[in-house]
Amino acid sequence: MTQTFNVGAQSRLVNATAWLVMLLAVLAVAALVHRAAAAALPAAGWLLVGAATLLATTAVLGVAVGLLLRLEWARRSAVALLALAALANLTGLWLQHDLLLSLLLLAGCALLGWTAWRLTLPMVRQEFA
Q: N or C, fewer C-beta in 10 Å, the chain?
């Protein structure tokens, strides 16, 4: 059976993923600023945490913008970041003793995995050619 691709059509999945990632990156910076304002760590500790967070957030924002521009390296990076986030959630799962939080973590892992899988499908990959 032949597959039909819509050439030139942009999927809503890629746009939604990119905009959601940008929103989460901005919220991460806002949370960093809020926590730094009420800092319990010494200034040197917050400087190191802040620099690492800003570096990671800048990289994530770059990947999100690359997704919107349909760049192949951004698609591959997004798949890797989504898989890494799912793995981080799974490793945090064994620390949870509450059933509801464990179920929420599993649902989040499933959503991250589903999004990463969808970004690898041929119809989405051809947008990045």
A: N
